[in-house]
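INFO batch 0412 | record 1 of 1 | parsing
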Amino acid sequence: MRATLDLPDPLLREAKKLARRRKVPLRALVEEALRRVLRDEALTAKFTLADHSAGQGGLLEGLDWTDWERVRAQIHEGHGA
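INFO prediction complete | emitting tokens
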């Protein structure tokens, strides 16, 4: 896919110099830079889990966080699992 970029002259000159030093086409240098930015963004993007809790939070009366068998049974109750 082709795209046109409007870059400041000093930035383009530096990029061309670096591409010549590396002996790669300017296109390859720009592609590498864009891939790095996208990768870094993906690594630093903060994941937020949506809050889908019901009620005021916590467990139902009589359940304990360490009693996973009962918690699991309560979750699947009425769902055929």
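INFO post-check: The chain is about 50% helix and 0% strand.
INFO record closed
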